[in-house]
Structures are given as structure tokens and as C-alpha cells.
Specification:
There is one protein chain. Mean pLDDT is about 75; it is low at about 1-20 and about 70-85. The protein contains four helices and 14 strands. By secondary structure, it is an alpha+beta fold. Helix 2 (about 25-30) packs across helix 4 (about 105-115) and helix 3 packs across helix 4. Strands 8-7-10-13 form a four-stranded antiparallel beta sheet, with no helix packed on it.
């Protein structure tokens, strides 16, 4: 008696399934998996697979150009900034040619459902886009004041006329004919934490900083120069 009840239930389920799936030419074409050139279930799975492409993530790179008095130094700082965008969902719409008996998407989808294929969703990798913007920052370079002397000891009263001036970092400085100079006040400009001890002065016998003679620290004090005609202050920047 139990076996008979079970048989009845199975029969009702089969009848319900048959009633919901109309075995028309559309369904027959989809079920026709026996041909090598057809794969109804696989094509249905592909048709039911929706691909979600996440919104494009935009990364903004800020190219900062630091402008000094006569030179430019460029630094690229990558700053991630999320820019709002929309994700896209790609749903296949092409029906296989062998299922031409299916008059449209609704009938083809119904036939695919009747052979047990369900909808799936896959997520594509997040696309990225890089945008570069330019920003300009104004800065001042370090300077070192000096006074030139005729003697070797920077004695008062031996200063050269018009020999006072300032070295500017990275800029060739023409010097009057003199024997010694006394380094004075150091100004780090906008280079935070820089001191005179971090910098050096290179002296040249040529007027355009081409023939190097010797190098001296940029710390305050008197130093013998000789008959050098130009000097260059360099600092770690």
C-alpha cells in the first residue's frame, strides 16, 4: 500500500512537470543534445549566465612640479581617490540558430528551464583607470651669505669692494678676485631640516663652474679660496 501511494505521488509530479513544460518545437530543439554540433544544456547555461562588471576604479596621480628660482624638480605622488562610477551587467541575448523555433527570449528561457538549467551570475575583475593631474608648488632654495677678503685670515679692513653676496644652491656664482671668503648666515629656504653642515661649496678656476679646484664645507667661518672665479653651493635636496 505504501508503494502504491509513492507511485501515485511520483505520477502527479511528472504530470505537473509535463503540464508546465510545453513540448513544442522550441523545447524539442533545445533537448536535441544527441547531435555533435549541438549542446542544448551548455548553450542554455551560457545564455543564463549574467556577467557583472564592477564600476571602474579611478586612481588619480598628482604630479607635483616644484619650481625654484632657476630649476625645476619633479616628484610624482600617487594618491588613490575613488571616483564614483556605475557597474554594468552583461546578459547574453543571442539564441542559438538551431533553436530558431523559439520565437523569442521568453520561449527560449522557458525551454532552458524545462531541461533544468538555472540562471547564474559571474563577476568580472574590477577595471581601473589612471588619471594624472599636475600641481605646481613654489619653493625657495637654500642660500649662504659670504664676504670676500684680500688676505687669508678675513681680517677686518681687507674686505673687497662689492665682494659680499650669497650663494644660491645649484646656481653658479661668479666671484671677484679674492684670496679668502667668510661664510655667513645660512638660509635653508623651504627645505625643512636642512643645515649648513649638510651642504658643500665647490670652487672653480673658471668663471662658469667648469674647472673644479677644491671643495669646502658651507659652515660659517673663514676659508682660503685663492684666485678662484666661481663657486657652487650644493645641498642634498
Amino acid at each position: 500500500m505504501h508503494f502504491s501511494t509513492l507511485s501515485v505521488l511520483c505520477g502527479l509530479a511528472a504530470a505537473a512537470s509535463a503540464a508546465s513544460c510545453n513540448a513544442d518545437n522550441c523545447l524539442r530543439a533545445v533537448r536535441a543534445n544527441s547531435f555533435p554540433t549541438r549542446s542544448g544544456a551548455a548553450d542554455c547555461s551560457s545564455y543564463f549566465e549574467a556577467t557583472v562588471t564592477p564600476a571602474t576604479a579611478t586612481v588619480t596621480q598628482t604630479a607635483t612640479i616644484t619650481s625654484y628660482s632657476n630649476k625645476r624638480r619633479r616628484a610624482l605622488n600617487a594618491v588613490g581617490e575613488g571616483v564614483e562610477a556605475r557597474q554594468m551587467t552583461d546578459i547574453p541575448t543571442a539564441i542559438p540558430t538551431y533553436a530558431s523555433a523559439c520565437s523569442g527570449s521568453a520561449r527560449y528561457s522557458s525551454a532552458c528551464s524545462c531541461i533544468g538549467v538555472t540562471a547564474t551570475t559571474s563577476t568580472a575583475p574590477t577595471p581601473t583607470m589612471t588619471v594624472t593631474v599636475t600641481a605646481t608648488a613654489t619653493a625657495t632654495r637654500p642660500t649662504l651669505a659670504f664676504t670676500g677678503y684680500y688676505g687669508e685670515s678675513c681680517d677686518a679692513g681687507t674686505e673687497e669692494d662689492n665682494s659680499s653676496g650669497s650663494f644660491v644652491e645649484g646656481e653658479c656664482m661668479m666671484l671677484p678676485i679674492q684670496i679668502s671668503i667668510e661664510d655667513g648666515a645660512f638660509d635653508a629656504g623651504t627645505e625643512t631640516g636642512l643645515t649648513a653642515a649638510d651642504c658643500m661649496i665647490t670652487f672653480y678656476s673658471g668663471a662658469d663652474c667648469t674647472t673644479e679646484e677644491h671643495t669646502a664645507p658651507a659652515t660659517p667661518g673663514c676659508q682660503f679660496v685663492g684666485y678662484d672665479f666661481s663657486g657652487l653651493l650644493t645641498c642634498p635636496m
